[in-house]
From TrEMBL:
<feature type="domain" description="Carboxylesterase type B">
    <location>
        <begin position="22"/>
        <end position="272"/>
    </location>
</feature>
<protein>
    <submittedName>
        <fullName>Acetylcholinesterase</fullName>
    </submittedName>
</protein>
<dbReference type="Pfam" id="PF00135">
    <property type="entry name" value="COesterase"/>
</dbReference>
<comment type="similarity">
    <text>Belongs to the type-B carboxylesterase/lipase family.</text>
</comment>
<dbReference type="InterPro" id="IPR051093">
    <property type="entry name" value="Neuroligin/BSAL"/>
</dbReference>
<dbReference type="InterPro" id="IPR002018">
    <property type="entry name" value="CarbesteraseB"/>
</dbReference>
<dbReference type="InterPro" id="IPR029058">
    <property type="entry name" value="AB_hydrolase_fold"/>
</dbReference>
Length: 346
């Protein structure tokens, strides 16, 4: 189990020695020895609020070791497909108005527990995402997408690309003309699932789809079915250690297209996967960090510019509100547990 005092990279807990009467048992052995009352007590334990609960724990049972070591030793497949949506995260439109700067600072405080030695973590992050600072919630929304979804996924891809050749990274970027979400939200977390499982082809009681949506669904279903069958798909370009291409599905001029880009959000991925960890691993630098050393961050455009934000004014209509409670299962067909572990396992 993860100890709230564990610093980054030390979430190893092979035994349950902290529990009474555990002795040298493994978690599996210990749980089998408990009666229903004892199990109910453990189930009722609350996670401390200051603990970010995303990291997996190398317990020696479910996860035998750290990703770097385990993947180096053996892989149970020779080809992988990692997929996400263009914007990920799940925004609640109503919160755009109510989410304050104080709320943002509270969220940043929780995220700071991952990078404990970065003393000016909040200031550094807000400065990196300054194009969104006019809205506290949209800024948090962008940070959350990069920090929780994209950075771990790309880190996983970088690791896997060292050992296999058939690795593909796919982004679902199609925005339906009937999308209930505001324009700035683009393609939020989980929307691709409806297309993967053919909802546009059979209809859905909560959403309206047109012919272009149906075509997008057919294409993405083909991507996944061909991959599972082991069939080659010319629309996907391999993500390699020396050539980090990824494929995204887009809609343009009433047509569904597959396009290839050379890298994914280079600046932001470097920020989360390289820059912040480099500060965190040096407590002296972290304690004195005030300004970001721009030489450590690759140049590149932000996900959405300030001008775009002005053009796409946030409005809360009844149609948007109807989807504010929308919830989906996170789509990670490959290595679900590994993904979040990488961000915490330097």
């Amino acid at each position: 189990m993860t100890d709230p005092q564990f610093p980054q990279g030390t979430n190893l807990k092979p035994s349950c020695s902290d529990f009474e009467d555990c002795r040298n048992k493994t978690y599996k052995e210990y749980l089998k020895s408990l009666n229903k009352t004892q199990l109910a007590t453990i189930k009722g334990l609350e996670t401390p609020r200051e603990l970010v609960t995303f990291p997996a724990v190398v317990d020696g049972e479910f996860l035998p070791g750290r990703p770097n070591d385990v993947i180096r030793q053996s892989l149970n497949a020779d080809h992988f497909l990692l997929a996400f949506t263009k914007d990920e995260d799940e925004a609640y439109v109503k919160m755009v108005v109510s989410f304050s700067k104080a709320n943002l600072l509270e969220v940043m405080k929780l995220y700071n527990t991952v990078f404990r030695n970065v003393k000016n973590f909040t200031e550094i992050v807000i400065k990196e995402y300054k194009e969104f600072e006019s809205s506290a919630y949209i800024l948090q929304h962008k940070v959350d997408a990069d920090f929780v979804f994209f950075a771990p996924m790309i880190r996983l891809a970088d690791l896997l690309s060292q050992y296999i050749k058939e690795l593909y990274v796919f982004s679902f970027d199609h925005v339906s003309a009937h999308s209930p979400h505001p324009r700035w939200q683009s393609v939020p977390h989980g929307i691709d699932l409806y297309y993967v499982f053919g909802a546009p082809l059979v209809g859905h009681k909560r959403f309206t789809y047109d012919d272009l949506d149906k075509e997008a669904s057919r294409e993405v279903m083909t991507i996944w079915s061909d991959f599972v069958k082991g069939k080659e798909n010319n629309d996907l370009q391999p993500y390699q250690e020396s050539n980090k291409k990824f494929t995204h599905l887009v809609s343009r001029n009433n047509e569904i297209l597959f396009e290839t880009k050379d890298s994914f959000r280079t600046r932001k991925m470097h920020f989360w996967n390289k820059y912040l960890p480099s500060i965190n691993n040096n407590s002296t630098l972290g304690a004195n960090e005030v300004k970001m050393d721009r030489t450590l961050i690759p140049s590149g455009s932000a996900t959405q510019t300030a001008n775009e934000m002005k053009q796409n004014r946030v409005t809360v209509s009844d149609k948007e509100n109807s989807s504010s409670g929308f919830s989906c299962v996170h789509w990670l067909l490959v290595a679900t547990c590994w993904t979040m572990l990488f961000l915490f396992s330097l």
